Amino acid sequence: MTEFATLIAAGVITWALRASFISVGPGWQFPPLVEELLNNGRFAIIAALATSAIVASGDGSLLDIPAAWLIGGAVATAAALSFRNIAWPMVAGIGAVWVLSFAGL
Amino acid sequence: MDAIQLIAGLTPLGLALGAAMADTGVSAPASLSTSVLLFGASAQLVAVSLLGAGAGVLSTLATITAVNTRLFVYSAVLRNTLGLQPRWFRWAGPYLLVDPLFAIVKVREPELPDVESVRTYYLVTGLALWFAWQPIVALGLFAGPLLPDGLSMEFAGPALFLTMLIPAIRTVAAFTAATAGAVTMILLPELPAGFALLAAGLAGAAAASLGARWRTLR
User: Fold this and answer.
1) Which of residues 53-82 of A touch B (CB under 8 A)?
2) pLDDT at position A58, please?
């Protein structure tokens, strides 16, 4: 019961974070500098999410990242530059990791 | 079309999440309920992992809040786009806000002619993701542990973030922000995940702004 109560509370907090600015609606603006930081910050956050997931694949150090993941990341990046969609880079990246893992890398 | 591509991309991630949740020892109903209550891979995994490890209520809630702080930034970035929508949407719509939906809405925003088009695009794509996510995670939960070791889905997370990021980088400022964010994340491995993400976001945004000013001065 505590488990579900905790999860429900977590759900409410998560929704509140999502709705925080959107629910307020139009009619107010951030200063231009904050606006600029927000617009650029989103790229940094997504890059940080990708980086943390890759670094976590080892023991938290850059030197411990499996070679298959590094090559898979490069393949996914190259495919994303070529196809500019989501499905093919995912297939290419995961496929590369699978092949390289089976090859012992 | 975007929704189909997103679902195809999210499928390995959802399967991996389900398989990872199966290893935590938390009951299947509780694990599956996170897909509805939290609807976000990182928060779901953190919640179930902490509950499985016997963490307290407050520490679990604090960690999930930290992991989800980026949603606060997403909400701020999208406030001009979604804040113009009717009140019902401004309260209910944010429930669907996840990383891929945020990224794709920012990419498509310039092509959507009016408020109604934005709302339709957001709802169709967001609901498609939601309805696809539920069975995918369930499949991972029940079938994931049966997969051979070599067929790990763990790379799906970083691959998805890379494929959302790369097409969105169209300016020097965006490239600078992404690079600085990635470097910051590497330099701050000891910070809790949510705070490290916020620090990376701030560092990336500051680097991009400073770079733009430097280029203007030259």
Assistant:
1) 53-55, 57, 60-62, 69, 72-73, 76-77, 79-81
2) 66
